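Obj: model holo form, ligand = magnesium ion.
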Amino acid sequence: MGKIIVKKNLPEIKYDASIEDSKHISLSKKYDLFINGKNLKTKKYFKTINPATEEMLSEVAYADNKDVNKAVTSAKNAFNKHWKKTKPSDRGKYLFRIARIIQEKAREFSVIESMNGGKPIRESKSIDIPLAISHFFYYAGWADKLNYIKTNSKPEPLGVAGQIIPWNFPLLMAAWKIAPALACGNTVVIKSAETTPLTLYKLAEIIQEAEIPDGVVNIISGDGKTGSYLVDNSEVNKIAFTGSTEVGKHIMKSTAGSGKKLTLELGGKAANIIFEDAPVDAAIEGIINGIYFNQGHVCCAGSRLLVQENIADLVIKKLKSRMNYLRVGNPLDKNTDIGAINSKNQLKRITELVKSGVSEGAEIFQPQCTLPAKGFWFKPTFFSNVSQAHRIANEEIFGPVLSILTFRTPKEAIEKANNTFYGLSAGIWTSKGSKVFEVLKQIKAGVVWANTFNKFNPASPFGGFKESGFGREGGVHGLLPYLKD
Ligand code: NAP
Ligand code: MG
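Output (holo structure tokens):
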């Protein structure tokens, strides 16, 4: 049984709360589906809550099979009647409009994203919403330049894209999917994740305000079953999915032989490798950002720290001291570093995996901090003395929990980094440029960051190898899955 070390008697630093104003946001009590440019009522509605308080925010429509069929028919009609005939430069103008209107309402989007998802307002304001906007701007620019992607080929859209997104970056994942699909001339039906439907319904309001032709973007909510109805609908020409490897595998099976084009962006267990010659203080910030950003609900999180053995004690000491200053609490407080866990289910999964780490003999560290009484919370945590056989070294925890392993040589670091079913991302920390190139060439991951972590840009392709999925989102690569081969 591992030992639990909780550091006590720290100098206490008091901060006054600086709560983001939420008076300016407007949320409806009830959200219908958004199909064919209109709000469509359904038989069933479900509650969506604030995970930091467990209070209900709104009720949202549950789309059953009939509703999904309506959404797909609406998208198909919109594709045939006007969107495929719309001039590429006009498609670009519509996308620019969406980007600009989100920009005008960025504060409202940020607050709602934090209230519905639990993420710190600092992050939704400076990362989620600006990145979503920049994806719409970026792909707006591509709409009339598709002829330049490949020589001697005429780019043609696929038709209806069915898009299924997770709860960790709701608006951003919607932008990653909707923007390239529309730029290429497809229409879409997008399903939000069960726990985070609200910013997508705010986006529906923007789609109307931007006067996007009816049916070009259809937004639905529901649960996993709703997602599977969309996957199984025979009028859908492409499925783009981001979520768990388990569901991704299931979708792969059910679309096999259907002629649907498929992209899967699944989980990860990224290695963040710290070499002995790394700038250690910068690396500490990179470790913190790598695993505690968005409560660790990040598919490319640096959840496996590989530290060169001779600096491991130093890194662990500095990490402990830095973690004592992380502030966990109200997502709407501008001082908050770590917000609420997205859902009760996710908290259960994190708790279970952390228990397995303790019982398998790894050593746990959690800083002293008081968690709010209501809502779903988990202290920032790391495990040292982790062996490669431990569950916490292999399974995606998707929470604020880091597993620390050590290595002696670059060769061993590479072997350990690649010793995973996943292959989404990795990080390398060293002061030697040559080492960066030598190591990154040998790491099987879609994105490798050097001396930084979790940096995103709409012009950079993002996606995985192995059980992290296939297909790329972002950049020119992100257009290809939405065009005929
Ligand atoms: P998930 O079940 O894979 O959910 C992702 C999306 O797929 C959601 O919109 C979900 O709908 C939908 N979905 C669920 N079952 C489906 C099915 N059979 N057919 C079509 N769509 C379906 O992920 P989760 O349960 O939210 O999270 C579980 C674990 O997955 C996490 O602990 C984490 O390890 C991993 N995860 C990875 C990512 C990523 O970005 N790669 C994102 C989220 C989760 P509902 O939300 O309505 O059920
Ligand atoms: Mg699920």
